[in-house]
Specification:
25 residues, globular, single chain, mainly alpha
């Protein structure tokens, strides 16, 4: 679930600026 959220956040980048997205980038 965490991985999916990270990928989604990283792809969109505007959906939810969560720390997971930052880690992915």
């Amino acid at each position: 679930a965490v991985v999916s959220t990270s990928v989604t956040t990283g792809a969109l980048g505007l959906k939810t600026p969560a720390p997971s997205g930052t880690q992915l980038v």
